[in-house]
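Task card 7
Instruction: Convert sequence to C-alpha cells.
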Amino acid sequence: MKKAYLGQTALQVTELCMGILPMGPNQKHLPQAEGAKLIRQGVEAGINFLDTAEMYLTHSYIEEALRGFTPEVIIASKSVAATYDDMQKSVEKARQELKRDTIDIFHIHAARADASVLQQRAGAIEALVDLKAKGVIKAVGISLHGADTCIAVASHPAFDVVFPIVNKLGMGIINGTLEDMLRGIELCRQAGKGLYAMKSLAGGHLIGNIIDAFAYVQAIPGFTSIAVGMVEEKELLFNLKYFRGEEITAEELPKVQEEKRIQVLSYCIGCGFCTKACPNFAMTVVDGKVQVDNNKCILCGYCSPACPLFALRLV
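Output:
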C-alpha cells in the first residue's frame, strides 16, 4: 500500500487510515474483542495508521488489537480539553489506555468549533506543544469541520497535522462552503502541514458512489491519507483492494446502502445536550423532543454519549 510522509513530520503513513470511531460505543458498539480482531486484520494487511479519540472510547480496542504486533503503527487521538492541565490529563489517559509511552499525533478535537477555538483552547494547544518538546507526543494536530478554522490553522505555528472534513457533497462542513474548506486545505498544504481527510463518504451518504467519492478526495493536493471507518470485514477488504490500486469489478461495488439514522427514543426529555454536541447542527428540540434533520446528519455519533438518558441510538 502507498505510504508517504505526513507533511513535514517524520511520520510515514499509509494512504488508507483506519477510522476506529464507528466500531465503538458511539456507533456500532462492537464487542471489544470483535473490534480488536478487525483492527488486527487491518494492520496485518498493511494499514499502519489508526485514528481515534478520547470521546470514542476505543483506545482499549486498539491496545488489544496491537498486543504482540511489532511493526510500526501510527496512532492519532484527540481531546476536547480546553485547558493546559486538562489536556495533559487527556494525553496521559491515552498513554495508559493504549499502553504506549508516546502518542504519534494528538489533536485538538474541534469538530463543532469555529476559528475562535484557537484562542479558547490556547492552554490545551500550549500543553500539546510542551508535550511534543518532551517527546510524549510526536505531532500536534487539530481535527475540524469548520472551513474558517482550517483557514486560520494554516498560519498557526503550533500545528503539524490537520484533519479536516471534506467530501464531494461538502456535507458536514460548517462555517463556510466546500470551496472555503478547499482553500483552507490548500493554505495548510502550502504551510507544510500534514493533511489527512475525514468523512470522504459523507457519513455513508456516498457509499453508492464510493469510487468517485474516494477519487475526489485523492485528487485534492496535500492529502497523504484518507480515514475510513470500518465495522465489518467486507468493508475492510474492499477498502484494502481500492487503496492498493487493484481492479474492482462491478460485482464488488456496494449494491445497496443500508439506511442508517439517529433514532430518538420515547423517553427523550428534550434537555438539548445532544444539540450542543452535534457538530453539524442537525438536531433541534421541538415540543420537548429532539428532532433530527437527516439532510444535515453525517452519522458521526457525537450526540449519543452527550445524552444523559441514553435516548439516542444509531440504527
